[in-house]
Amino acid sequence: MLDEAEFSVKSTFNVTTERNAFQDIGSFEELDCISQFLTAPYPGNGKDLYCNSTWDGVSCWPTTASGSTANVPCFEEFNGVKYDTATNASRQCLENGTWSPWSNYRECKPLTLPEDDEFYQVLWDMKEAATIYYVGYGISLVALSLALFVFFFTSKT
């Protein structure tokens, strides 16, 4: 959990509300998103509807005019997989000033590594080692079974 001393907010809320807000923050990215919203000037003349900056668990969506689409660069890494940041994710700000419940990350494609990359070479070597391991132990088990079979049948006569 984040400590209240790490982030100060000028707010009209009471201390209990601020503490509850800090308990709900799950990551530094979300905290950064909230701090951008709190420090950036609100766009427009105050009469137009906007969707507030929000964190959807993956990306920070900026304050966006109602009826338009917000675009943010795709994340660099998600669940240990690297992604192409040259493409964008999008999210629709509805006419009533609320965000669409769905963020479109379909354009965010994982990076493919070249076949001659060292990572693939290590994986191939591990695959070969595992194959040799299982084949070797399989042959050894068959030879041992055959030896025991010969031993037991020749010792009875």
Task: Walk me through this protein's architecture.
This protein has helices at 15-24, 28-39, 118-155, and strands at residues 50-51, 54-55, 60-61, 64-65, 69-73, 77-78, 81-82, 88-92. The strands form four sheets. A two-stranded antiparallel ribbon has the order 1-4. A two-stranded antiparallel sheet has the order 2-3. The protein is 38% helix and 14% strand. The longest helix has 38 residues, at 118-155. The chain is rod-shaped, with a radius of gyration of 29 Å. It contains three helices and eight strands. It has 157 residues and is α+β, with helices and mostly antiparallel strands. Mean pLDDT is 75; it is low at 1-20. Pfam families: HRM. Keywords: Disulfide bond, Membrane, Receptor, Signal, Transmembrane, Transmembrane helix. This is Diuretic hormone receptor. Residues 32-112 form the G-protein coupled receptors family 2 profile domain. InterPro entries: GPCR_2, GPCR_2_CRF_rcpt, GPCR_2_extracell_dom_sf, GPCR_2_extracellular_dom, GPCR_2_secretin-like_CS.
